Automatic annotation (TrEMBL), chains A, B:
Transmembrane segments: none annotated. Gene3D superfamilies: 6-phosphogluconate dehydrogenase C-terminal like domain (1.10.3660.10), NAD(P)-binding Rossmann-like Domain (3.40.50.720). SUPFAM superfamilies: 6-phosphogluconate dehydrogenase C-terminal domain-like, NAD(P)-binding Rossmann-fold domains. Keywords: Oxidoreductase. This is Prephenate/arogenate dehydrogenase family protein. Residues 6-295 form the Prephenate/arogenate dehydrogenase domain.
Length: 306, 306
């Protein structure tokens, strides 16, 4: 692997940024990596664990002279951060992000991007239920997808360079159109997360009735949900608020189907249930065949063998 | 570990029974293990891979002389199987099962149990999304709960012996009252499974619209759901039909909560969402502290270190 950018600035130092830093170092993808986080505590932690070559006390300092600036903050504050750094961006620099929603990020960030700076939104499909500067690890993106969502007029050379960068981080990179991104993610990630949060909330209500039995005997189904429902609250609040339409659309379809299955249970329609479950089982095989999950009991959340 | 039963008969040779067999051998818990499965193909497979010391061509043969008979068939056929084996049970033998639902199994099986035979229902909280005689492994029950659900008049010595047996298989054993079992499992397992099936079904509908993108980019949330939704269709059909009331009750609560969250998304109530997600995150910690999941990326579905 060889150096792709002279200087990379990471704004926000949580799970994704910290994993990016370790993967940049692993691949030798940048000459220097600067970092900034709003909270003093996070900056202190970063300095203590050697996260970033240089941790700056304000965002302006961090982006100064950077060839690539990556916004790794919750989707809801992308616009404010873009406004803050805009005057300090180097001409010819590329600004990117790692937000789970793209339409709203583009709307919030684009207006602040100065002439001569390239904005290339991106979204690495990788994560764990952990958050914060100490949760990152170099292998997080290995064999995972990173979607580039170029906006109108995105410079093709800037896009190509960012692609090489993400490939260097270990990802498989593809480009996707903005609306499609938000819909596909609503199905594969946003709605499932809200559903997991809901189910865990229901169990919590019941826990008060059944003491700690629900937790004690958390069988496979529920335990998996709790892992999903342990993800960063701020990040997910912003995802739902900013990908509102697609998420509500998918949740509407979900409720319809759930009612149909509930009705089958109530009326004792075993055939309908069996057919449905047979169909969903086939989808699992599709995912394994597509290489998005191995058959190993890992759930893609840990370190991936390369 | 020492021998607990002279002869154990496993009726039905899927994931649970095959794991029991390997764990019995590992612990030296029985002198001989006989097995029976309804399908010729399953019996052939069992013989080929050495599953059971003796595979019988009918259930009567398998249970003859057995001190412990374990019904490892879908909940919906427990009654029919009990009727079939009843005349061939050895006086003083214990009959148990591994069904995920208990009220309906007790109602279906109890009437067939002859005088002098002990019926002690049980439910090991362990599984994977795989099924069939080749999916078993000796470590499946290690550190997992097995709930004993004694019925009125269950012989205390028979219960104690079955407890020792399940402890020998690697489980932590507790007794639970029948109605409570069905409610707790509806929360921790049955409702989550139905929800996962539903979400995967919704994605499948959409897949036809978005080609294979939903599968290709199955991010963490959805991928975890597909694993749950790949479980055995027959087993789960029977679970929902036989634990109908508790499952529908929990799904009703779930829908209520989901609507409240959808409303918060629609109205942009970020505070409500953030509070909710913070609460569910705490539950995850409770589960890790309760030792029902480690922090390792394994989801409790694989082999557990002992």
């Amino acid at each position: 692997m060889s150096q792709i950018y002279d200087r990379v600035a990471l704004i926000g130092l949580g799970l994704i940024a910290s994993s990016m830093f370790w993967a940049i170092k692993r691949g030798g993808l940048a000459g220097e990596v600067t970092g900034y986080a709003r909270s003093q505590e996070t900056r202190d932690t970063a300095r203590r664990i050697g996260l970033c070559d240089r941790v700056c006390d304000n965002a302006a300092q961090a982006v100064e002279g950077a060839d690539l600036v990556v916004l790794c903050v919750p989707v809801g504050v992308m616009g404010a951060v873009a406004a803050e750094i805009a005057p300090h961006l180097k001409p010819g620099a590329t600004v990117s992000d790692v937000g789970s929603v793209k339409r709203s990020v583009v709307e919030a960030v684009s207006p602040h991007i100065p002439e001569g700076v390239h904005f290339v939104p991106a979204h690495p499909l990788a994560g764990t239920e952990h958050s914060g500067p100490e949760s990152g690890f170099a292998e997080l993106f290995d064999n995972r997808w990173c979607l580039l969502v170029p906006v109108e007029g995105s410079d093709t050379r800037a896009v190509a360079k960012l692609r090489a960068f993400w490939e260097g981080l270990g990802s498989n990179v593809e480009e996707m159109e903005i609306e499609r991104h938000d819909l596909v993610l609503a199905v594969t990630s946003h709605a499932p997360h809200l559903i997991a949060y809901t189910m865990v909330g229901v169990a919590d209500d019941l826990r008060r009735v059944t003491d700690s039995e629900v937790i004690k005997y958390s069988a496979a189904g529920f335990r998996d949900f709790t892992r999903i429902a342990a993800s960063d609250p701020t990040m997910w609040r912003d995802v739902f608020l900013t990908n509102r339409e697609a998420t509500l659309e998918i949740l509407g379809r979900f409720t319809e189907e759930l009612f149909a299955l509930q009705r089958a249970i109530r009326t004792g329609d075993g055939e309908m249930l069996h057919d449905y479950f047979t169909r969903t089982r086939a989808i699992r095989r599709g995912i394994i065949e597509a290489g998005q999950d191995t058959d190993a009991p890992d759930f893609g959340r840990g370190k991936v063998k390369t």
